[in-house]
Amino acid sequence: MTELLKNLCMCDGTSGDEVAVREFVISQIKDHCEYSVDNLGNVIAFKKGKNTPVKKVLIDAHLDEVGLIITHIEQGGFLRFKTVGGIDTAALLFRRVLINGKTLGVIGGKPVHLCEGDERKKLPSADSLYIDIGAGSDEEAKKLVSVGDCAVMCSDFAVTGDKVLAKALDDRVGCLVLIDLLKQDAEYDFYASFSVQEEVGLRGAGVVAFTVEPDAAIVIDGTTAADVADVAPSKQVCRQGAGAVVSFMDGATSYDREYYNAALASGIPAQSKCAVAGGNNSGAIHLSRGGVRTVALSVPCRYIHTSGSACDMRDIIAVRDLTRYMINQIAGGKL
Length: 335
Hints:
With 335 residues, the chain is an alpha+beta fold.
């Protein structure tokens, strides 16, 4: 699974520009299920199981990652940009970026030795930053990039013990789980969606749910793990190595209580997400049509939405196993 996760993370797919990730996903699933691509670019797969389900189940993970979009090319050749999705300014400063998969640059700002007084004590505003691609003029820059082009922060993929370090773990870990499940024999029929534009407002998943009309949904995502130095236990949200993270409520969804309890009682390593914050595609899916019973299973991810995100392969396996368990419980009519 690690090599597959590496290939997923090394694909670039800023929200609204998920083509490379989508094509890679299709290359992995095309021989194992039926699939289609809708007008927004969501991949909707159908996996035939050994048995007909009592309830129609949809599993969702999103293709897109946070990134940047070019908004202006200055006369000196520097590029102004806006963030796509939630990225802290501290994660941007002096990072290398890749534009359209081919043009390298670095995010620049005012050098610290030129800052005075309070300027030295606080982060610059995101609007003061720019991308330097080495161009000497706007004419030279326009030969390489255009307004509207997308960029991602450059990252290697590293493995240290059970941990992996990379960009885009949110939500290539979810894509990994879906691909793995689609490649295996299934007990019951189920649908799986690789949805677009989650990081900019849960846009693709609502379209998928409207199309599939599921009775129940399992949303797989990466979530913030703050089990790091100097963070009080009550603020850590979840812990790496403790298994799948099951949400009871977040900023977009109040989750199905029966599904939540069943996931925690499954015997598969799992933990509660001890925070009511953020959101994921559940927010769009559970409100589709007449309503969809929904559970969110997440992989704990440290330093999320940066080029150096970290997760634990044991947690990914727990999410995979718990997802399979929940499919069988729901599709089999036990929940």
